[in-house]
UniProtKB/TrEMBL annotation, chain A:
PROSITE patterns: B5. NCBIfam families: pheT_arch. It comes from the Eukaryota. Belongs to the phenylalanyl-tRNA synthetase beta subunit family. Type 2 subfamily. The keyword ATP-binding applies. GO terms for biological process: phenylalanyl-tRNA aminoacylation. Its EC number is 6.1.1.20. This is Phenylalanine--tRNA ligase beta subunit. Keywords: Aminoacyl-tRNA synthetase, ATP-binding, Cytoplasm, Ligase, Magnesium, Metal-binding, Nucleotide-binding, Protein biosynthesis. It comes from Cyprinus carpio carpio. It is found in: Cytoplasm. GO terms for cellular component: phenylalanine-tRNA ligase complex. Residues 299-376 form the B5 domain.
TrEMBL record, chain B:
It comes from the Eukaryota. Belongs to the class-II aminoacyl-tRNA synthetase family. Phe-tRNA synthetase alpha subunit type 2 subfamily. InterPro entries: aa-tRNA-synth_II, aa-tRNA-synth_II/BPL/LPL, Phenylalanyl-tRNA_Synthase, PheRS_DBD1, PheRS_DBD2, PheRS_DBD3, WH_DNA-bd_sf. GO terms for biological process: phenylalanyl-tRNA aminoacylation. One of its GO terms (cellular component) is cytosol. Heterotetramer; dimer of two heterodimers formed by FARSA and FARSB. Its main location: cytoplasm. Residues 375-519 form the Aminoacyl-transfer RNA synthetases class-II family profile domain. One of its GO terms (molecular function) is phenylalanine-tRNA ligase activity. This is Phenylalanine--tRNA ligase alpha subunit. The lineage of its organism: Eukaryota, Metazoa, Chordata, Craniata, Vertebrata. It holds the Pfam family tRNA-synt_2d.
Amino acid sequence: MYLNNKMLFSIHILADEEFDELCFEFGLELDEITSEKEILIREQGGEKAEGASDVVLYKIDVPANRYDLLCLEGLVRGLQVFKEKLEAPRYKRVSPADGGEPQRLVITEETASVRPHAVAAVLRNITFTQERYESFIELQEKLHQNICRKRTLVAIGTHDLDTISGPFTYTAKPPGEIRFKPLSQSREYTAAELMSLYKTDSHLRHYLHIIENEPLYPIIYDSNGIVLSMPPIINGDHSKISLNTKNIFIECTATDLTKAKITLDMVVTMFSVYCDEPFTVEEAEVVYPDGRLSVYPELAYRTETLSGDFINKRVGINESAESIAQLLTRMCLRSEVSGEGDLIQVEIPPTRADVIHACDIMEDAAIAYGFNNIVRSTPRTYTVANQLPVNKLTELLRQDLTAAGFTEALTFALCSEEDIADKLRKNITETRAVHISNPKTADFQVARTSLLPGLLKTIAANRKMPLPLKLFEISDVVLKDETKDVGARNNRRLCAVYYNKSPGFEVIHGLLDRVMQLLDVKPGRNQGYHIQASYLKIYFNDSTFFPGRCAEIFSCGKSIGHLGVLHPDVISRFELTMPCSAIDIDIEPFL
Amino acid sequence: MADTGLLEALLRLLEKVDGGIDSQDVAADLGVDHQLIVGAVKSLQALGEVISAEQKSSKRWELTGEGREIAEQGSHEARVFNAIPDEGLPQNELMKMPSGKVGFSKAMSNKWIRLDKAHEGGPRVFKTVETIEDTVRDKLQLVQKGLSAKLEDKEKNELKKRKLLSEVTVKSYWITKGSSFSTTITKQETELTPEMIASGSWKEKKFKPYNFEAMGVAADCGHLHPLMKVRTQFRQIFLEMGFTEMPTNNFIESSFWNFDSLFQPQQHPARDQHDTFFISDPALAHEFPQDYLERVKQVHSEGGYGSQGYKYDWKIEEAQKNLLRTHTTAVSARMLYKLAQQVNTHTHRLMLVSPLFSSDLTLLCGIIFQEKFTPVKYFSIDRVFRNETLDATHLAEFHQIEGVVADYGLTLGNLMGILHQFFTKLGITKLRFKPAYNPYTEPSMEVFSYHEGLKKWVEVGNSGVFRPEMLLPMGLPEGVSVIAWGLSLERPTMIKYGINNIRELVGHKVNLQMVYDSPICRLDS
């Protein structure tokens, strides 16, 4: 969002540095200082930028939970209150003037299966300018992207109330029975036609999936059968708002009622400032299929009571209750000391839906106090450190493997199915691999079940390096395991490869001997370690290793892995040309 | 080594002169090829300070092939003259001589011979003088003897034009006596041998000096990966600060522990397919602490523990979904839950054995909670996964560094204090904190440090105080605060080792030379 100098002036800030500081202190991100012209030059090239404005613009990013700062109106209001240049306004829900009936939105039961909730409100006698109008549209778009979760949870429709007449009906119908002229189109379409029309629309196509496969589509009519909107896709052309619109009917349909209420509160609190009677919002009634009637917008103010001591102790400051009340008031949380001890009454306005717990209030007090004014102190927590045994062993072994002449590689935990199966001459079903459901590329199909593919790929990328190449990695692979709560577990492995003009089995065998020496396991059949030919693998001909050149490694009678000369097919599938021997063992038995 | 005789001959020549001698002159004096002298000079230099030699280059006149022929056999014109008998020679015969054509015209212009065109039997050549002086040959012979200085430049240029002489650049040495000059050669030894040590002969020997300018032989050893070296240092820092390592060896996590237990709502964008890798096999986690799960469900959907909650329909199906953990905080949650269970088990046990105290039980439990809860400091450094768009600084997996402290009465000031200590150990002392948003911490702070090179504040980590909605359902006592911070391992490593593209640091495409060459890691220097 872009702020200009005029807005900065309204918060009494003149220098860029001062504004930068304010943003930091308040938790905003001042992305860059630019101008309309610069933006155009960057995005569309110099020619388009000719004649564009040079006025300085400040690009701001706001935290994801502060919906009240999403539009210029709210951001400037928030900063004005923070700088104590303005008192936070009080938002009021009012009945229609002259004792008229409130607007009414009736929900039918057909909506239950697709989008069951709706809320509504009216902004009366609003005055738009080009700037305000654009900001109004932009806020809806931002809310749609943000709290409305790309319109899945909530969709906002705003209408020129003077072109339609209530009561309004929110219902759901088969797509073939819905027919209207949508925004920016010149003729009527059925809902089914619209869905195919918008398939190619760069903006709307992202929302089609929300209702596309539903038997009934949500739709809102006025009392004359005019379509207001087909949420969450598009509004009708008939009721569209313009710069001249005076009275706005706002409806939010939703799958999440809480979010719908917040969204509606946001739209009306931000833009009621432009009504003849600022910060007032005309109520609307919503009638549920079961006959219940609710009045919206809620615009609820909630009061929380907490002690100054609580704030002081959590933040680590020592302020009086009065001073804390003042800090909170600067954060749009109007507060006063209640008179009983150091208790503070904090009023949470409808704009601050992010405040759901005392800790949120505490944070606001800390922000207003200034994070960087808080005295930094060391906690006196006394603890004795412990290493995780498997990591301790890993650290020790890594050191000694490099001392043995092997270089440490660092490869990815995710890879393709091919890497752990076909390329290793294995069947994917036997790998016990964990599969990823939504990989963007083949590189992230599975979690690795062996460190070997990563090491071989490292060699392939380093074929120009002098031979021999001696690499190792001690890291985790992931295996399916029914005994775990998530059905999978990590397994810490040691893998090493030797790549040279001759296979060097004796080198890899020597490395095994050295590792066992380091682990204090002596050679021997029972209490020690030994290797023996792996007949099973030869028999099934699925081995990663060259027939007759593969041995299984046993330690204290338990199989812990394999070593051997790689099968020529494995070598060439990893785009290598030289013989290669490898060892792959589980180090967890040595913990 | 060049032949000792030649070396000694050179040294004897050098002994006789004051100052120095040119290697070209040595060659001329000794009558050997200059290249041999160059070899001798190099051999003598290798002996130490016997001589010193300075390379120089000079221009020198040299005979061409034709010039050498003339110096030997006389000029073409002289050869023509000498071939003519007194009675003359027919011109066509003379022209058949090898020197005929050139010699004839030169001898004519020297007026040594004349041509009688009208002679019967064809044109005939006769001598016009008795004797001649072959100056061309004389001049060339002078040059051949190294006495070109006796000729005038004009003469030399004329011979050059006739392609008899050429001017060449000669590299030579200016040789002078060295500090340990002697005319006899002692052979230098290259290396000390066991025999020399045994016999003591090393005392008499001279040893060839080493060339200290050359690089040594590369050490025959393995190398640790730079990212892992930095990981080791971070582990060390945490251990120095009394932090215990968490068991993060579980890449597969349920949405429950990764998100729900952290009070991250089920509609949060981080739980999108676009941001997180979900697992198709095994797709669902099947085991949860049931009563805790109920409390989590309640705090999300209805609130409680002083919270309004998010007020939405919390679904177990969403919590069951397995994924590749997006942060190690999932493990922190498991550890804090475990910590809370220790507190609760103790209290239950107490209730079982002490039914008599029932009237004071509430009070007593309070005390016991306080007494039994053990403060902890935890850390982890391990892989996390994000289904993000990849670029020069983002990969689908990276290492997260995380620190967690749980104790009674921890303040935001404590968090800043401990961050200050932590970053001081990284050599970063100028810190400031910016309010930020994170679903499971409140307050949340981004940590910035002042970068002297960039002259600006850069983000170095994230931190915060875990929300009560996360801690209280676990069963942790109310007064316990948990502060935590995190950063990536890759970013400080890239800065430390000056790497701009993360693919040059992590994964199979790294250049092993980079691994071989990377220095040890000391984060505070």
